[in-house]
Write a structure and sequence with these properties.
Strands 1, 2, 3, 4, 5, 6, 7, 8, 9, 10, 11 and 12 form a twelve-stranded antiparallel β-sheet that branches. The protein has a six-stranded mixed β-sheet with strand order 26-25-27-31-32-33, sandwiched between helices. By secondary structure, the chain is an alpha/beta fold. It is built from 17 helices and 40 strands. Helices cover 21% and strands 30% of the residues. The longest helix has 19 residues. Helix 3 packs parallel to helix 4 and helix 14 packs across helix 15.
């Protein structure tokens, strides 16, 4: 079972452990509890594990939003402070690291303070508590021959994972992970993958680049991909051209449809007050209730009638664009990209490679010349030495993050691989409940960065196992790399010979090495090649450097990444924030699966705050990023009385004229990154204002 539910030992309540997501949290009760496992069938929504116990109160150690449904499933109350009379209720509590549901027969009152919410019943009450992991698994693997027509059939089945084709599919937990795809001799579909017919078709020429670029859209629309001479989207009695510029038009349809689904779904199971919907009152004239009840094809036709130029300024910045070389073997990455709702582009088979001596690339890769300490081996000069591929300069993107699948070393993009994506699914259930972090410092001059160990594990409700190691020998480094470590933070020297150890260098490209480390930051000069060797050997994802890096900015970047990973950010988003703060952050690159997280954010989504003082009051901006189970479409609530609406992830929320007291109450809730007047700081460092 992926979720364990255990009684607390040192206090009264439950500890919930999701082994798949490396997530833990606690619920506190007014008395000791002895949870009895149940089948969970008495919950309104599906659960992975459930227990029964008795209590008069349940406390959640964070400000929680509670949705209360009656016995018919209708919402009767919702918010951080609610009260309902005696009755039978299904209660959803969020955000928590798993989906959390309570089933009770009692009156209940929810009262929230600055740091926790308390649910009180009418005296001692039997409670059924159910939990569902935010992780999802594909139903199986489709095998397809390598010709484009067969791949169309495979991509047409990506939408089979949708739990619904209603607007609620915009919730990440109702989309499901698409079935996997592998190239084989004959076309075959596992029994668990059921073919569906939404009435929507994507017509494309039978070429890899068209099939690949349609994958995310086909998944979200549950569309059938069929061959045709001119790209278009077809439904019952209508058609919409996808030419010219097929990739851009697919991206527009996906962004438009997803965003409007998020607005229309407020007419369904979750009738919440939505920040984004309020902004559109003067822009769109849509009958949301009518749209909600339409079949998918008719609803999509109505969406496409909305002028994109009216909608585009209001769309949130999309999270990810992935460039995929249009080659048969790369079809296997499409289910993972569709699961991420990535926009997909297919560069030409032989794009012009970037010249390392060109002004743009040399500026990106330049070595620091004014730093007293450079993290390269002392007996070699500076200069880029990666020799396992050519540089590639992908076209710019409008999204927050950018990934590249194919040969070459991409400048400014995550070098993703199918092997790393497969480990997203195949990592299994860990035997321990704690998160292991190893901080290795192999140079005395860099011991200051070793203090980053103090930044990992600064979380309640999570168990960390952190070790700081100095001056490892080659044999000790081999042993560490082979161990089951969740995150390796390496501080030291790297060159063509490998990672510097106390008695020489260890070359990670040695095929005899065993790699058990799950993710990493190699904070050393020109560590890209060694980092790529970790990915090829078994790691899921990591951050490495393309160039020599100076010690002082490298130390600062290491501290930023440590804090962000501890706060639940994934590798790509952590580096994105670090690059906003430090120009030298562009000397680093993400390798493998950039979606890797060390733990879950306490607030659910990853959030970056922007704070500006304006004449005695404060303007606050909050930008949210999808991570892990809190993917695109998640609802986010800003805990302040200045904004009582829900907000979408990803998105940007702006609240103006906050008082100092209101801002301080927000800053006290948890440690998160804040750009104050353009400079990256941390919420705990800004207090008091």
């Amino acid at each position: 079972m992926s979720i364990d539910i255990d009684p607390l030992v040192e206090s009264e309540g439950l500890r919930v452990t999701d082994h798949i997501e490396n997530a833990q949290f606690e619920l506190y009760t007014d008395r000791p509890v002895d949870p009895v496992p149940t089948d969970g069938e008495n919950h309104y929504f599906p659960v992975d594990a459930a227990v029964r116990f008795s209590a008069s109160t349940i406390a959640v150690p964070r400000v929680a939003n509670v949705v209360v449904r009656d016995a018919t499933g209708a919402v009767v109350a919702e918010g951080t402070d609610v009260e309902v009379p005696a009755g039978e209720y299904f209660v959803q509590v969020s955000p928590t690291p798993t989906k959390t549901y309570l089933h009770v027969r009692s009156g209940l009152t929810v009262v929230s303070g600055d740091e926790r919410s308390r649910i009180a019943f009418d005296g001692e009450t039997a409670v059924s508590a159910g939990f569902r992991s935010l992780n999802d698994q594909p139903a199986g693997t489709i095998t397809t021959p390598s010709d484009p027509e067969s791949m169309m059939r495979a991509v047409s089945l990506l939408g089979s994972s949708l739990a619904t084709t209603s607007p609620e599919r915009s919730f990440p937990t109702l989309r499901g992970h698409p079935p996997l795809i592998e190239v084989g001799d004959a076309f075959s579909v596992p029994d668990a993958v059921e073919e569906t017919d939404s009435g929507v078709e994507i017509v494309v020429p039978p070429e890899y680049r068209y099939v690949f670029a349609s994958a995310s859209l086909a998944h979200y629309l549950d569309a059938t991909v069929v061959p045709g001479s001119t790209p278009e989207l077809r439904g019952d009695g209508w058609s919409h051209s996808l030419a010219p510029d097929f990739e851009a038009r697919c991206s527009r349809v996906l962004r438009r449809t997803f965003y409007l689904d998020c607005l229309v779904r407020t007419e369904g199971f979750y009738p919440v007050e939505l920040y984004e919907l309020d902004r559109l009152d003067d822009v769109l004239d849509l009958e949301y209730a009518r749209l909600y009840d339409l079949p998918l094809s008719e609803r999509l036709d109505a969406y496409l009638d909305v002028p994109f130029e009216d909608l585009e300024p209001l769309l949130p910045q999309w999270s990810l664009t992935t460039d995929v070389r249009p080659a048969a073997e790369n079809v296997s990455v499409l289910p993972y990209l569709a699961d991420d709702l990535s926009l997909i582009r297919c560069p030409e088979a032989d794009p012009s490679d970037a010249d390392p001596e060109s002004s743009h690339v040399s500026e990106f890769l330049r070595s620091p010349t004014d730093a007293p300490v450079v993290r390269g081996a002392a007996d070699r000069g500076t200069g880029f030495t990666v020799d396992d591929g050519q540089f590639v300069q992908p076209d710019p993107v409008d999204t927050v993050e950018h990934a590249w699948v194919g040969e070459g070393i991409p400048i400014g993009a995550n070098k993703a691989t199918i092997e790393a994506y497969r480990r997203r699914i195949g990592r299994g259930t860990p035997e321990r409940g704690s998160i292991s972090v190893s901080v290795v410092c192999n140079d005395d001059r860099m011991r200051e960065e070793g203090e980053v160990a103090n930044l990992y594990g600064l979380r309640d409700m999570l168990q960390f196992d952190i070790e700081v190691i100095h001056d490892l020998t080659r044999a000790e480094m081999r042993e560490l790399l082979a161990s089951d470590v969740d995150f390796l933070h390496y501080i030291g020297h790297v060159d063509d010979r490998g990672m510097q150890c106390a008695n020489g260098f260890l070359d990670l490209t040695d095929a005899r090495l065993e790699i058990g480390v799950d993710s990493f930051l190699l904070n050393a000069c020109q560590s890209y090649r060694q980092g790529q060797a970790l990915i090829e050997g078994g790691s899921r994802g990591g951050i490495a450097t393309l160039t020599d890096v100076a010690n002082a900015p490298a130390t600062e970047l290491g501290r930023i990444v440590a804090r962000l990973m501890n706060g639940g950010f994934n590798l790509r988003t952590a580096l994105h924030v670090a690059q906003r703060a430090l120009i030298t952050g562009h000397q680093y690159s993400v390798l493998g699966d950039g979606d890797v997280t060390l733990c879950q954010s306490r607030s659910g989504a990853a959030a970056v705050f922007e704070l500006a003082e304006t004449g005695g009051t404060y303007d606050l901006g909050v930008r949210t990023y999808p991570i892990g189970g809190f993917g695109a479409g998640t609802l986010f609530t800003l805990t302040t009385d200045a904004l009582e609406q829900h907000c979408l992830v990803p998105g940007k929320v702006t609240v103006r004229e906050l008082t100092a007291d209101q801002v301080e109450r927000l800053l006290e809730l948890e440690v998160f990154p804040v750009f104050a007047d353009g400079e990256l700081q941390w919420s705990d460092e800004l207090l008091p204002l």
